[in-house]
Description:
This protein is α/β, with parallel strands linked by helices. It has helices spanning 6-14, 36-46, 61-67, 73-81, 115-124, 149-154, and strands at residues 2-4, 19-23, 26-32, 55-58, 87-90, 107-111, 128-132, 157-159, 175-178, 184-188. It has a single domain (2-188), classed as DHBP synthase. The protein is 28% helix and 24% strand. A 10-stranded mixed sheet has the order 1-8-2-3-7-4-6-5-9-10, with helices on both faces. β2 (19-23) and β3 form a beta hairpin.
Amino acid sequence: MKSVDTKTATALLRDGEILIGTLDGYPALICDARNSEAVAKLRKLKKRPPEKGFSVLIDSDARLNRYTTDVPPIAWDIIDTATEAIILVLPKGKGLSKEVLADDGTVAVRICKDAEERKLVQAANGPLACTALINAEGLPAAGTDEASPEVLDEVGYVLSLPTANRHYPLRKIPVIKLGPAGEVAVLRE
């Protein structure tokens, strides 16, 4: 695997490549969330069932409005008060590869809290589909064998972000599903 910087990574992402990078301390697979071929390849690598979507990394509130049809009002409060990474499952994703969305059309959005991750999304000029290679226990994520050599052989590039040198405690990223009528469901604490 070849190590690349953010500038090189953004060109590769636009060309449909999948990269390995470190997001919030976790090794993750990353691709352009608007590129259907790249997301289909990511789905195949992860052996992810078609009904399950991917997390989408977004850098700002403004970009959130571009990729969701309806942002429930409580989402803004959660985003404004969150001090660490959080994933919000929102109704009706738009402008993204259908491969990114869950089968009910929802989109799992993560607003970047880390400055280097935000720079990556800004440089890519769009949302990035991402999925962890390991879980909080340091094991391959549930239901798949992401850390297998076959997955690593399929990915030719490792993204080198300055944050990758920081040591984060492995922890589960909370997931909250928000409905259009104000429904709130905590899917993972």
